[in-house]
Every structure is written in C-alpha cells, then in structure tokens.
Amino acid sequence: MRALRRFTVRAQLPAPLAPLQTLATNLRWSWHPPTQDMFTGLDHDAWERSGHDPVRLLGEISTARLAELAKDADTVVTVRELADDLQAYLTEPRWYQLEREEDPTLPAAIGYFSMEFGVSEVLPNYSGGLGVLAGDHLKAASDLGVPLIGVGLLYRSGYFRQSLSLDGWQLEHYPVLDPQGLPLQLLADESGATVLVEVVMPGERTLRARVWQATVGRVPLLLLDSDIEENEPDLRGVTDRLYGGDQDHRIRQEILVGVGGVRAVRAFCRSTGHPIPEVFHTNEGHAGYLGL
Questions:
Q1: How far is it, in rounded angstroms, from Cα 253 to Cα 135?
Q2: Residue 159: is its pLDDT beyond 90?
Q3: Half-sphere exposure of residue 155, counting CA atoms within 13 Å on the CB side?
Q4: What is the pLDDT of residue 4?
Q5: Distance between CA 173 and CA 231 in Å, rounded?
Q6: How far apart are CA 188 and CA 93, in angstroms?
Q7: Which pLDDT score, from 0 to 100, does residue 243 have?
C-alpha cells in the first residue's frame, strides 16, 4: 500500500541548546572540525547511528540526554560559542567584500549552475568528481565571501548505490530520499506561500517545480523538485534520478535546471532581498538552456 503522506519529526530542543538547530542545518559543519567535534560529544553512539548527520543526530538523542546536556555548563557554553562563531562567519566582511570596496564593478552576485553538488554525504545529490568539484566551489566561495547562488535539481532517488551479488555481479539500488529529513527548507515568497516555478516543456506542456534551499555556509543552494501533485505523472518524475532515463528525460532535466533555475534565482532574490546575479556560470553544459 502506498503511503499517503510522510512526516518527519524533528527534536524539540531545550532552550539552552536551541542554537543546535542552526548549527545542524547550516552545512558549514561539514568542513568545520570544531562543530563536528561538538556534535560527536553530544552522544557518540547516536552520532555513529546517524551516519554523522547532525539533523538525524538530534532526533536520535533521547529526551533525557538532551535535558542532561542542557544542564551541563560546558556543553551550553560550547554550543553558544560555536553559534556566535557561525553568526560572525555569516555576517562579517570577508575577502570578496574587501575587494569589492576597492573595485565596485565586481559582480554583486553570481549564479552557479550544476546538475550535482557534493557538499556532504547527508545531502546525497551527487555521483562523483563533478559534484565534489561543485561542492568544493561552494565551500571555498563561502569562506572567501564570494556571493554565489548555487542552482541544481533535487533528485528523489539520487544516484544509485552499488553492491555485489553472491556471484560477483554489480547491483544497483536507488534509495528514496525524503526532503523533510534533509537539511533543507522550502523557498517561500514574500507572503509565505511556497514558490513554484513554471517551465514549458516539449509538447507545450507546463512543468511546475518547488524550490528547496540548502545553506552552505554563506552560500544558498537552490534545488528544484518536480515531484509535486501539480504535475502530470511523467513530469513528476523529471527529477527522479541523477543521470537516469533516456535522452528526452535528460533534456527535460536540462531545461528545468537552466530555464527553471534562472526563475528560481529571481524568486529567491525577490523574497530575500539578495542581489540579482550579474554573472551565470554553468558547471559543464547541462544548464546551457539558461541562455534562453
């Protein structure tokens, strides 16, 4: 029987530990060892069970353990110091801001388009080298203060995972991903309504996609998702798998990330006040339709 709806329950944190939510959902932790060490120290066994995923970790830790940690002065101070450090990292001028003071012609924002982003294993939106490169670009841009806006697709089954059968043949498994359990939030407009972008597909059909946002340090990463009720069944599957399907399927994906991605960026800038990109970078030619 098919599930009617999925719910992901997130932990209710005691007030002294409330900053853990921000520390867990901003992917800066993935390249910031002090934050990783803090999460490990909360509950080592739960950290291992969660696959080193802070969002899952907070759901794995028992209520009793959270209450105990909230009364531990050292833990509370560490959490607060790391939260303050993250806030300073997000708001203080960095290299690019200092460069732009000397040269105001530098772009105020840059759109960075890729079919995959390998930021962390907790966001399995990549297959290999191209995705890891794109993820490293976002991390470096964040550290330098370069105002990138990452744009890609959210794949419900991601890229396949490999295993071997008893007789040595490769087997492929496509895990089903629940966005509610990932470090993502839906992009909303100024009124609080979920943003939907529309793109015309071959055959004069309209594809609609909602936009999930991941936070990679200072860099927003926008991921378009076609698996919504507003689409016909075959169009819902446009964002099913990374590098899956036939040529027509791939072209639909490339139209969505290119044309739909530009529209998602515009919606993001309208709702947040972020500067509109003056430069668009395509990581390989997959998003080439953005030129239209």
A1: 20
A2: no
A3: 25
A4: 43
A5: 26
A6: 27
A7: 81
Name, in order, each residue with C-beta under 8 angstroms of 141's C-beta and a sequence gap of 6 or more. Answer: 112, 147, 148, 218, 219
Residue 99 to residue 218: CA distance in whole angstroms:
17
Cα-Cα-Cα-Cα torsion 43, 46, 52, 58, nearest 10 degrees, comes to -80
Could you identify the residue written with the tokens 């203060």?
A: 145
Phi-psi region of 203 (alpha: psi -120 to 50; beta: other; left: phi over 0): left
Task: Give the residue among 279, 290, 36, 254 at the shortest CA–CA distance from 141.
Answer: 279
CB 227 within 8 A of CB 258: no
Tell me the pLDDT tens digit for each residue of 233-262: 889 999 988 887 789 989 999 999 999 999
Q: What are phi and psi of 56, to 5 degrees?
A: -65, -35
Cα dist from 31 to 81, 84, 120, 216, whole Å? 17, 17, 9, 10
Whether the model pTM is above 0.85: yes
Please spell the DSSP secondary structure of the chain, one letter per residue: ---S----------GGGTHHHHHHHBGGGGG-HHHHHHHHHH-HHHHHHTTS-HHHHHHHS-HHHHHHHHT-HHHHHHHHHHHHHHHHHHHS--HHHHHHHH-TTS-S-EEEE-S-B-S-TTS-B--SHHHHHHHHHHHHHHHHT--EEEEEE--SS-S-EEEE-TTS-EEEE-PPP-GGGSS-EE-B-TTSPBPEEEEEETTTEEEEEEEEEEEETTEEEEEEE--STTS-HHHHGGGSSTT-S-HHHHHHHHHIIIIIHHHHHHHHHHHH-PPPPSEEEESSGGGGGGG-
